[in-house]
Amino acid sequence: MGDKNIQVGPERLAFDEVVAVARDGAPITLTDAALDGMAATRAHIEELSARPTPVYGVSTGFGALATRHIAPELRAKLQLNIVRSHAAGSGDEVEREVVRAMMLLRLRTLASGRTGVQPVTAQTLAALLNAGITPIVHEHGSLGCSGDLAPLAHVALALIGEGFVRDARGELMPAAEAMGQAGITPVTLGAKEGLALLNGTDGMLGMLVLAMRDLHRLLTAADLATAMTVEALLGTDRVFAADLQDLRPHPGQAASAANLRALLADSEIMESHRGPDCTRVQDAYSLRCAPQVNGAARDTLAHAELVASRELASAVDNPVVLPDGRVESNGNFHGAPVAYVLDFLAIPAADVGSMSERRTDRMLDKARSYGLPPFLADDPGVDSGHMIAQYTQAAIVSDLKRLAVPSSADSIPSSAMQEDHVSMGWNAARKLRRSVDGLAQVIAIEILTAARALDLRRPLRPGPATGAVVAALREQVPGPGPDRYLAPEIAAATALVRDGSLIAAAEAVTGPLT
Length: 514
Prior knowledge:
single chain, 3-stranded antiparallel sheet, EC 4.3.1.3, L-Aspartase-like, lyase, HutH
């Protein structure tokens, strides 16, 4: 469990706070300002509920059924029914970290005081998070409009003590049983509360925040892989010079090139071919243009962060309770802003992976590797070396390209044409998670291959930074030799890329990389 207590109130949450709760189990506390604001807004909702004039979501049906006025004696049933009927997901369980991020982000919106829920409802959601109780949410069910309805309904179902959850140990059990063991009382929903728990972009936003955190690390790892391959292929680092990069002042490109310069500093391999007899004046694009591609990916990520920061400051509900007391219908639940950047990030994930695979292939091709053995094999013909590791890369990259096709360009009308345009943002988020996972494996295979190639360049030594990466990798993966079972080595390298261990090894030499 994380140690830092995250304060949840009307203010936006920071990216790090979302990740700390979702991944590390950091405890949360609702602020006094949040509780006071929710209490005041709730009193207003109760007063509106007592009026004879229909108010959407308070005393009417939902969606295409909003024209029906609901009698007071049926309103408690109305709130239960929307949760039960909307908990209609299907497919595999969604990952624990995604569900926890979704719960936290819905809680933040409740804490804004703009939804009209009872303070106890928000307190119960916070209690579920702090107890490590995770509702079962399914892969399919959200259209990314009117919020992530089905996923959030499965969370709301647990709040009322229905459906299934996993406890802090990961055991599957009925929600009521898990809540009883944790001393948490299920919520009795009042007017508007069922709707307020479902109307949000919290699932797709949570996945965006988690993907952004992962992509930051992977883009630094992509620079690390590039540097190792440039060394291994006896490439030039002159193209990464700051004055050349300044001619095209994209910030991501500058950051990537700065990383490459730091990683390649003091390399014996680089120095070995700087003399006048070297005819290598231009490298292939996959080496020479790496800062332009890895850098553009960084700039795309920066745009996604801007959108996510705005969404984290939003109070997404329909209807919403405004500070002057008006309860107004709106379209803020539409997931387009988040859906677009989720789709956008899948494009550079595919392209960075594609460039990484091309560099790997060059190291394995005798005609283009400048003296390295075919496929880096110990005894070519008897041994196949990394031949099939590149096949694995190619297969993943092909999948990354397919995943780069946007979900948000599609829309299927729903709710009897009342909801006639939807964002498909949840689908965009699900495929981005697969893209991020695939990119980590692709970069890991390049690093694994480049480390082998650098070892084969001995007695010339790589730079101190890239050498430290090879040494860190060698703690888990042996060096060149006859063919052996490669899958565990790929898995080990992937784990070291994902957890930042290889970046940390380089940074012990270079200082912080970006």
